[in-house]
Amino acid sequence: MTTYTQAHRPIALTTPSNSRPLSRAFCTLLMAIAAVWAMPRSASAQLYVVQTAANSVGLYNAATGAAINANFITGLNVPTALALSANNLFVANGGSGTVGEYNATTGAAINANFITGLNVGFGLALSGNNLFVPNFFGGTVGEYNATTGALINANFITGLNEPYGLALSGNNLFVANFSGGTVGEYNATTGAPINTNFITGLNRPVGLALSGNNLFVANFYGGTTIGEYNATTGAPINANFITGLSFPAGLALSGNNLFVSKYASKTISEYDASTGAAINANFITGLNGPGKLVVASPPMGTSPVILPFISYSGDFNADGKEDILWRNIQTGEVRIWDMNGSAILSNEGVATVGLDWKIVGIGDFDGTGFSDILWENANDGSFAIWTMRGDSAVSQQYPSPGYQWSITGVADLDHNGLADILWRNVVTGDVQVWSSVSPFNFSSEFIGTASLDWNLVGTADLFGDGFPELIWRNQNTGEVRAWRLRGDVIIANVSLGFASPDWEIVGFGDFTGAKRQNILWRNTADGSVDTWIMNGFTIVGQWSPSAVSLDWQIQATPDVNGNGVNSILWSNVITGQQAIWTSNGSTFAPGAPFAAAPPAWVAQPEVINGNLTP
Asked: What percent of the chain has pLDDT over 90?
């Protein structure tokens, strides 16, 4: 668990003339974002290089080889290996038998003794929240919690012959045996051997790297080569893929570029990963005992990814009735309709914000009963929380947690009255939660990993116990699944059913008054509406009212009456008319249009055909 504190910066806001001035009194916010996920902001990949003889780690531009900081981390004790998890850089120290944890942006030590008591660890590998560390002289691989450093299993794999380099492919963990001249293959969940002699006949293998189904192996002694092997069968593709090297120690890939550290010649060389041809034999020079390498790349070009998910409506005046939040998608102005049923009590302007800022969620982050607004910046990935009191906002802005991380949900997951933030890694599929332990005091916890064909649609309290489930949809098969959580532990992962691709989840809400939330669907082809009435993981009923013209789009499911039963807010994208369907306990009762808003005004967070629009 990581807890953070950070000072705040306000977003620049423009207050509309017909609204009250924004409050500028800042409260103390406790958050240290950069210590958790802040990735380097370079448009190029960055290359971390262990310098064993210099007891340091250097940082270089992976496109040019230029030094960013040759002494990025110093004071190490015979560093031998690296692993990167978001903004945490792990460094194995062979001399002290430790693994240290460092900030990957600044090089600052987070915990120099993150793991201790190792028997000369020469390699590192990460799988989700599990960190694998080989004990060179102990002949084992140990498994540790990558968040806390706590030991999970010191003898995860045993019977090895001076294990050195590690590499992961899905659930397969490859281990290079230095003295044995082999690479073994093991189950990364259980440690069970799959094939202890997956590759044989090597000459002191040390470094491993994977590119798709190709496994590259560095032969440190004698052979002075990099071999290329099939990562499924172990069969050689080209045992002499690169030759004439000088004690190759570390391997790393950035796109189609393969970097090789050459210990004796004190250089990093760059090769074509498809052909083995040299691109630049002297890519980085003047190093002191270069060893293991790791590349940090902006995964989606140089822009963050905003993931779609369904958020709930907010009660901005704390009267027990949920209101409608609006944004002008042409000017960026924000307004709130305070609601009482279908009656608009007030139409308040809040502020005007640049269109690079997107409203992505609503939740009560300070436990006051007033809903707050969560923003994410589409250009730089920074995010902000507006603490609301009616139409008055105090804005706090925070640095990006890295281009690979995107907000993917807002919910009170632990039932403590404070909204939590869910994050998804758009490269690995990892899911983390920032849990609100007190107002604006968050702790970060790893929850689990899902393949990227699964979209985290939102959260719904299917059991009515105050602990919402995470609702997933497979974009290929249409399957819907729910993760039931207790804290950061998935206690159940259950399929709820399947729906064809023309059906989109467009909302969640308690439509029956049973205190359980249900799943609202819309057919994008014919406009039909369907509702799965849930009791836990079981669909106990379906409501299927008549189809509605696709000019009308479902925008939200607010409880505008304050009776604990959600309604459906419809917007006509042509005329701007607004209508509310209320629930009578067995189906929806359509209401006549009660107001109109110009089409440039869109209810927030914006949902069109089941997707929050970035």
From this structure: 64
Is the model's pTM score more than 0.85?
no
Distance of CA 489 to CAs 45, 61, 495, 545, Å?
33, 38, 18, 37
Q: Which long-range contacts (CB under 8 A, 24 or more apart) does 585-594 make?
A: 585/512, 585/513, 586/543, 587/543, 587/545, 588/511, 588/529, 588/531, 588/543, 588/545, 590/545, 591/342, 594/342, 594/343, 594/344
The C-alpha atoms of residue 1 and residue 419 are separated, in whole angstroms, by 18
pLDDT over 60 (residue 11): no
CA distance 433 to 413: 9
Are 36 and 62 spatial neighbours (Cβ–Cβ below 8 Å)?
Answer: no
Contact between 540 and 533 (Cβ < 8 Å): yes
Sign of the CA dihedral 525, 529, 534, 539?
negative
CB burial of residue 1 (10 Å; 0-12, 13-18, 19+):
exposed
Instruction: Convert the pLDDT of each residue in 139-155 to its tens digit.
Output: 999 999 988 999 999 99
Instruction: Report the distance separating Cα 35 and Cα 299, nearest Å.
Output: 20
Query: Which of 448, 416, 419, 453 is closest to 432 using CA atoms?
Result: 448
8 Å CB contact between 445 and 1:
yes
Buried b (16+ CB within 10 A) or exposed e, 126-150: bbbbbbbbbbbebbbbbbbebbebe
* Backbone phi, psi, residue 35, to 5°: -75, -10
| pLDDT bucket at 4, cuts 50 / 70 / 90 | very low
Q: What is the mean predicted confidence (pLDDT) over 435-447?
A: 87
DSSP string, 333-385: EEEEEEEETTEEEEEEEEEE--TTEEEEEEE-SSSSS--EEEEEETTT--EEE
Radius of gyration of the chain (CA): 27
Q: Residue 546 is encoded by which pair of tokens?
A: 């008549």
Count of Cβ atoms closer than 10 Å to residue 10 Cβ: 14
Phi–psi pair at 265, nearest 5 degrees? -90, 0
Q: How far is CA 587 from the centre of its chain?
A: 37
Asked if 140 contacts 154 with a C-beta cutoff of 8 angstroms, the reply is yes
Place of tokens 């629930």: 583
